[in-house]
Write a structure and sequence with these properties.
It comes from Gossypium barbadense (Sea Island cotton). This protein is of the alpha+beta class and 318 residues long. The chain is built from eight helices and twelve strands. It is globular, with a radius of gyration of 20 Å.
Length: 318
Amino acid sequence: MAQPIELQPQAITVQELAAINSRQVPERYIREGVGALDASFPVLDVPTIDLQLLASSSSTSGDELDKLRSALSSYGCIQAINHGITSAFLDKLREVARQFFALPSEEKKKYSREIGSIEGYGNDMILSEDQILDWTDRLYLILRPEDKQTLKFWPENPESFRGVLNDYSTKLHVILEVLLKAMARPDQVLGVKPHADGSVITMLLPDKEVEGLQVLKDDQWFNVPIIPQALLINVGDQAEIMSNGIFKSPVHRVVTNSERERITVAVFCIPHPDQEIQPVEELINETHPRLYKKVKDYVSLYFQYYQQGRRPMEAALI
């Protein structure tokens, strides 16, 4: 697939548009069939996983592993508790994120995303004149490995931003190791059924008060409830590919709240772009034939499809 060309950077951010007219959404942001958060959506009972139990060598860790396997096969996501990160630290992370987005536009735009790149502050790439844009502003940063950090995009205001984010990255690395060890037991996984993030794993610290995340399950949208100090963790497309479809990368969306801003911190765990991703051979047999091709630099492919409103997994399916 040819690399699409970005037409131009977005001249005005969503926060600026909302400040100009909080009641009128420009047509370019209106997506058919998606409304504001509505109480009529049922709540998804996302399985809760105790990471302390999962990492332990006690007899109960087996039960928790079974719960994890079932959750990732059926839902594609979990609410992770007892993850070892204090409530005070999570609140500090939320606060520095909130402080950054509350800065004047001129200050935030010092860290603006450059054309053709995903790193930095701003919105999505604009690839066509009729592209429907997301009603969101993002600050996208590479956290690890540290030598790949592009510090010109890392805010120096608030002053504690860089230190807090680096600490968070270190803490998440420990959690990631626990999860990957638990997921990498092919003799103990079962299941089968479907899309969303281009990562292997996504770790989301949701807004503490404002809901908005919805997951598609069995062709129906469900609201994901907030558990204030839990991390919402979901598998991404690359985990679905490597598990040959056993783990499900869930389709999800965020609906808007007309009264309040929603700030979340999402960390995407992805392999190096040069690393080839393919189903684990032990998971391919006559009952479960190979479903996906070998792919490389899936994230670049993901963003190309995402901006065009298409499902990136199309490119990986056999």
